[in-house]
Amino acid sequence: MRLTVVSAGLSTPSSTRLLGDRLAQSITDELSARDHDLSTEVVELRELAGDIASHLVTGFPPPRLSAAIDMVTNADGLAVVTPVFAASYSGLFKSFFDVIDPDALTGKPVLIAATGGTARHSLVLEHAVRPLFAYLRAVVVPTAVFAASEDWGSGGDAYTGALPGRVRRAGTEIAALMAARPVGDGPEDDIAVLERGLADLRFD
């Protein structure tokens, strides 16, 4: 099975990439427990910014961008992570998914995540990121993961839980969907995939 992590972080090191790596490890651990082997690829959008702009203008993707698009469209599941800018996803994040065929993500399991300076931005996942992937007819897992500055190393609280717990729960959800999705067949009905995958969820 193949997982592709899309990170829209702009700095090095990046908390956005760090969150993506933690999500990938959680998914790997869960699928391993289900006797599935997983290979993980990472698409760093900051390295493709010029190529994305060129494609938007010319309509032709440069080779590096074309390879990144193939990683996304051929993956069995996606973990996508964006920093929050102006109360929404970053322009780079949106532009990348603008150059992908609108039908390419149909039925694909997607875990959405974001990073920001304060927890006040956490609803960006529900009012901006989730609708984007619903429009693309992807199957978005119920748990979205937001990491504010104070979440790193924090124990969380009674309502939100610690960041590691949210990462683990989201990883369990997408692993169930990936394991339930037929390999090599065309995209199934989104609701059928979601219902079967969620029925198989198990939490420790």
List the helices and strands and how they pair.
Layout: E1 2-7, H1 15-33, E2 39-44, H2 49-58, H3 63-73, E3 77-85, E4 88-89, H4 91-98, E5 109-116, H5 124-135, E6 139-140, E7 145-148, H6 163-180, H7 190-199
Parallel strand pairs: 1-2, 1-3, 3-5, 5-6, 5-7
Antiparallel strand pairs: 3-4
Would you write up a description of this structure?
This protein is α/β, with parallel strands linked by helices. It has a single domain, classed as Rossmann fold. Helices cover 43% and strands 18% of the residues. It has helices at residues 15-33, 49-58, 63-73, 91-98, 124-135, 163-180, 190-199, and strands at 2-7, 39-44, 77-85, 88-89, 109-116, 139-140, 145-148. Strands 1, 2, 3, 4, 5, 6 and 7 form a 7-stranded mixed sheet that branches. Helix 1 links the parallel strand 1 (2-7) and strand 2 (39-44). Helix 2 (49-58) crosses helix 4 (91-98) and helix 6 (163-180) packs across helix 7 (190-199). The longest helix is centred in the first third of the chain and has 19 residues, at 15-33. Residues 1-152 form the NADPH-dependent FMN reductase-like domain.
Which short descriptors sum up this protein?
204 residues, alpha/beta, Rossmann fold, 7 strands
Q: Please report which band the strand proportion falls in: under 5%, 5-15%, 15-25%, 25-35%, 35-45% or over 45%.
A: 15-25%
Structural class per helix/strand content? Answer: alpha/beta
CATH class: Alpha Beta
Helix segment count?
A: 7
Count of structural domains? 1
Give me the CATH superfamily. Flavodoxin domain
The CATH topology assignment is Rossmann fold
- Average of the residue pLDDT scores: 88
DSSP, total strands? 7
Runs in which pLDDT lies below 50 for 5 or more consecutive residues are 156-160
